[in-house]
Amino acid sequence: MDFGKVGQTIVNQQSMINHYFDNLQNVYKVGAKGSDISFQEMVDGSGGVVTPELSVSMKQGVIKDTKQPTHMAINGNGFFMVSDGDEVQYTRAGDFRFNENGTLVSGDGKFNVQGYQLDENGNRTGEPVDVNLALDPKTKLYGGKYTGFEIDDAGKVYGVSTTTHPLTGQKITQKTPVYQVAVANFSDPTSLKPCGAANFVATGKSGDAVVGVSGEGSMGKIVPHSLEMSNIDTVAMTMKAIEAKMAYNSSFSVFKTLDKMTQMAMQLIR
Q1: How far is CA 216 from CA 78, 99, 124, 127, 261, in A?
Q2: Most Cβ neighbours (<10 Å): which of 45, 69, 131, 255?
């Protein structure tokens, strides 16, 4: 065994320790997915190059009812599509809210939720766009004409209009389909690249996104006013971190022994 290989092993094991502790920090983050890390040696013209390989766990997290009208979870396969205007990412974190401009955004406000615009019959039109129901500050109407909104298990966003009959005093409620939240899936979602706790981007191994809506094809169903909790197993992840630490300590001991033997050999030569 040489210094180079032992040194690379130590670096890899330190990366594993960091990776598992990062997982543990995401245990209580909405929609977070645990992942494993391994190291593969890729041989090229200059020799072996060690690269990290991630495998994301797509195990379903527990879904909890929050009673919040803009919260959503996915029961089954798929991801919400969110965009910052430059890049589309995919997430299981459905802690959405309407911002001051009436755009449905991620919990941190950095990404806009993507959905299809719907015609008056509820049919999709065009490609996914930002979901927007701007609240008029003067009339307090969403989109300038709705008194409220609703989101159903198909991911359809309705503008709700409530009026009172002038003679009977009876309240009349009408719902108009405006948007349908987009859902995307991949041929190999475990190979997506994590971007934070619950967001991902596509990779060559994951394949391109197949975009649809709730319950379509292999897509899971949207669960309104709910959130999916993290699927990270605290005990299992802690054990993996401990095992990685033990392997690191062992490799470091070997490294120190090799260093000591090298110094002794150098002294004999002198």
Answers
A1: 10, 29, 13, 16, 64
A2: 131
Q: Count Cβ atoms below 10 Å from residue 211 Cβ, excluding itself.
A: 20
The pLDDT of 80-85, averaged and rounded, is 97
Q: Give pLDDT tens digits for 140-168.
A: 899 888 999 999 999 999 999 988 878 78
Output the pTM of the full model.
0.82
3-state secondary structure the chain: CCHHHHHHHHHHHHHHHHHHHHHHHCCCCCCCCCEEEEEEEEEECCEEEEEEEEEECCCCCCEEECCCCCEEEEECCCEEEEECCCCEEEECCCECEECCCCEEECCCCCCEEEEEEECCCCCEEEEEEECECCECCCCCCECCCECEEEECCCCEEEEEEEEECCCCCCEEEEEEEEEEEEEEECCCHHHCEECCCCEEECCCCCCCCEEEECCCCCCCEEEECEEECCCCCHHHHHHHHHHHHHHHHHHHHHHHHHHHHHHHHHHHHC
How far is the C-alpha of 47 from the C-alpha of 258, rounded, in Å?
Answer: 23
Q: What is the dihedral of CA 120, 126, 130, 136, to 10 degrees?
A: -30
CA distance 119 to 153: 18
- Domain ranges for the chain, please list them: 3-57+233-269, 63-228
Looking at the chain, the whole-number percentage of residues with pLDDT higher than 70 is 90
Look up tokens 């391994």; give the residue. Answer: 38
Bridge partners, residue 115, by sequence: 129, 181
At residue 45, the pLDDT reads 47
